[in-house]
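Fig. S4 source data, part A: sequence.
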Amino acid sequence: MIFRGLPPPHKPNLIYVARLDDNKNLLHILRNYDEIKDLIGQFTIVGDGDLRDVVREYTKQYSNSVMSGVLNNHTTQLLMAAHDYLVLPSKYDGWGAVVNEALSVGTRVLCSVNCGAAILLDGVERGEAFKLDSVKECLGKWLNKDPLSSSERAKIKNWANSHISGEVAAEYFVSCFSNERLTAPWLR
């Protein structure tokens, strides 16, 4: 089951898409869920891993949380687009590609400063990066806002398309190699 009925329209929906392991730090949010649960329409957890059973027990306690397991990429993207915020509270993440994926469908992101992709967040429109000891405060701040409007979603999608799409990244990568001042270290 992916959605448990329709969440109240005045509360934003939160989604987590990642492995269910200690490094991704989802349990930090779930252990403190009582403090934020009333701010959330629905909290959807997509993924699988070592902490599957522990996460399942938490989601059973709350009527506005659901664990879907692993989904195909198309379904995950549709689900991300139906949520207002993606949360990624990782203790460490080299990049966190799911941040790019969420922004590309117009979903705001709240991720730890330990994710390389935190650099994509502006603290205003696209979301915010938080220190691990302030995740509850960050979630509270953003979840107290109204759900994303269609114009806010479009603005995020447009930014992602013009700044982090595959085409833009490829052009940047090629330009790095076409610059005459750059010499590959193996050619020096």
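Fig. S4 source data, part B ends here. The chain has seven helices and six strands.
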